[in-house]
Amino acid sequence: LLATTWQDSATRCRHAAAQRSPSRALRCLLSFEKMFAVSTPSSTTSRVPHARALRSADRRHVKAFSIPIPVRCSAAHSADDRVSLTRRGVLSTTLVASLLPAFAADAGEVSDSKMVGAYLPEAASEPGFYAFVASSTRTPALRAGALNPYRVNIPAQWKEAPVSNARSGNYCQPRCDEATTEVQFTDPGSGVLQLIIIPTTKLLIAKNEPTIEDVGEIYGILDAISPAITGSVAVEREEVQSATSVAIDGKSYYKYELLTPFADAGVHSLSVVSTNKNYVFIATIGASEKQWARAEGELRKIVDSFRC
Predict the structure, then answer these.
(1) If you ran DSSP here, which 8-state letter would residue 307 be given?
(2) What is the pLDDT of residues 177-215, one digit of tens each?
(3) Over the stretch 274-295, which tens digit does the pLDDT of each residue have?
(4) Least confident piece of the model among 16-25, 35-44, 219-228, 263-272
């Protein structure tokens, strides 16, 4: 009966490991050790009734994180003491050893899966970068049919960061009338990339699916959208390092380089802006002085790869 109880406890511990729950597995291990401490007879401790030992083994939660440690006050020990101590040690060690590889594998999977290089295809046009292509079900706006798919190339070590429902427009698409964030990617050593959309109706454009030229000229659009780029205040003209217009595959894009001390993501900012259906689409990167010094070339390649 004790062997059956041990097998049941071991199964619960492995199940906790499979569910990637270290806290549950730790509680299970401690309960498991406690079961054997109270159920194995010893000549120096009082004997616990067998039924109580089974009830202890059947507990799924342990109120206190404590492992009973036998204290020996005499140099003389019986053969039963040595056998019981060895059995408990072997069983506990074996169970821990069987669970540790599962935790190690899970930890590796979680770490690697967050880096885009672990799950995105490598960009054909830029070795070392990985192509993020937003499918029709990727974001609330795409699921609502408000946008066409878009893409951008990202370095392997960058990770996608979560976007809250409030910022993604999950509660209002496709009728949001404010700027919303599609996706964002970060790298602590390089900066933050955000893909942001603003309805053209907010900019008082009535035309259906306008071009970026229909929305406005290069500085006029910057005045309207710069709070979305900085995450705070509008950009002053002296903070604009460069503003250019480029045509790629027959579509116009406005490109900006800003040096603005009040931006949330960092003093340096690179942005590229165009239209997608009835939205102004912004790909913007923010970086601190330290990040800019380390990764300026990489950041410029990310912005240059954006297509919408």
Answers:
(1) B
(2) 899 999 999 999 999 999 999 999 999 999 999 999 999
(3) 999 999 999 999 999 999 999 9
(4) 35-44
Q: Which two tokens stand for residue 255?
A: 């490109």
Return the percent helix, strand and coil in the chain, to nearest 5.
45, 20, 35
In contact, 5 and 54? CB cutoff 8 Å: yes
From the list 37, 25, 28, the residue with the least C-alpha distance to 87 is 37
Residue 129 backbone phi and psi in degrees, to 5: -110, 160
- The span from the CA of 255 to the CA of 265, in Å, is 18
CB distance 41 to 84 below 8 Å: yes
Identity of residue 176: C
Identify the pLDDT of residue 111: 42
On average, the pLDDT of the chain sits at 77
Per-residue CA distances from 308 to 77, 80, 106, 181 (Å) = 78, 75, 36, 15
Residue 264 confidence (pLDDT) above 80: yes
Helix then strand count (H, E) for the chain reads: 10, 9
Q: Is the bond into 68 cis (omega within 30 degrees of 0)?
A: no
| Closest to 120 measured CA to CA, from 109, 112, 132 | 132
Torsion of CA 116, 118, 121, 127, to 10 degrees: 80
Cα–Cα distance for residue pair 85/206, rounded to 1 Å? 81
Reading the block at residue 7, the tokens are 């097998």
Task: DSSP for 258-283, please give it.
Answer: EE-TT-SS-SEEEEEEEEETTEEEEE
